[in-house]
Each structure stands twice: as structure tokens, then as C-alpha cells.
Design brief:
The protein is built from nine helices and no strands. By secondary structure, the chain is mainly alpha-helical. The protein has two domains: about 70 residues, no CATH class; about 55 residues.
Length: about 140
């Protein structure tokens, strides 16, 4: 009777080969590798004061890619400025008119998560998915 170790030993001697090169895997997910020119653009736009999410939007890159480039190049990531009381009031007002969180964020110039946090802090009840679907259907 052969032991499990005897059966596995030949497998351990063979080098493990990747199923596909990392570049091909990255391209399959729809991402393109960041070129040197794009890295320079990311660093330049961020240095000019543009927030990372707006840099990503402008260059058509995922937000995480921009943050990775900044981190790899030793750039300290800035925190977004806090929502001001006037912005919080405007967020609540716009959301109350039926705008989606994404549209409120675009109007104010902040992230969706900042809008969500502001609504929560202001005590504004979020719409249910069915209410949001009804509002979206009426916009069409």
C-alpha cells in the first residue's frame, strides 16, 4: 500500500507553472496596464490638487489604480475635506427632491459615500430600492 506522501512526492518535484501570464489575466478583467505616461499624468494631476477620484474619472482609470500609482510613488494621499454645514443642507435638499445619491454627489462635487454619510448624519431617511426604482422610472 502506497502512502499519500509517496503519491504526492512526484508532484512536489515538478515546478509549478502559472496558468496564464499576469498581463493576460489583467487584460481579461478589462483593465489596461498603466503606462509610464499615464503614471506621470496621474502624479501631475494629483499634484495640481485634483482629488484621486477625479483623476481616475478624467483618465478613465479605476479609482483603485490611481491610489495604487500614488502609493507606489510615495505620494501622501490627501483626505477629502469634510462636508460643510451648507453642503450638508444642500445634499439633504437635493436628495429630498428625488435625485439619486450619485446625482447629488455629481452636483455637489463629492463622492457617493460622502453623500451617504452626510444623509445619515443629518438624519435623512434613505429611500428603499422600490422607491428609488419608481423615481428612476418616472425620470425616463
Amino acid at each position: 500500500m502506497t502512502s499519500v506522501l509517496e503519491k504526492v512526492a512526484p508532484l512536489l518535484e515538478k515546478p509549478i507553472e502559472p496558468l496564464e501570464p499576469p498581463e493576460a489575466a489583467t487584460q481579461k478583467r478589462g483593465y489596461r496596464l498603466t503606462t509610464g505616461r499615464e503614471v506621470a499624468q496621474i502624479l501631475d494631476l494629483y499634484a495640481q490638487g485634483l482629488p484621486a477620484n477625479k483623476v481616475a474619472e478624467r483618465l478613465g482609470k479605476p479609482h483603485k489604480t490611481v491610489l495604487d500609482v500614488l502609493n507606489r510613488n510615495g505620494v501622501k494621499i490627501r483626505k477629502a475635506p469634510p462636508i460643510t454645514p451648507s453642503q450638508a443642507a444642500e445634499i439633504a435638499r437635493l436628495y429630498g427632491t428625488g435625485l439619486s445619491i450619485a446625482k447629488v454627489a455629481d452636483n455637489i462635487g463629492v463622492s457617493k459615500s460622502a453623500v451617504e454619510k452626510s444623509l445619515k448624519r443629518s438624519g435623512v431617511m434613505r429611500r428603499s430600492r422600490s422607491e428609488a426604482a419608481l423615481l428612476n422610472a418616472s425620470e425616463d
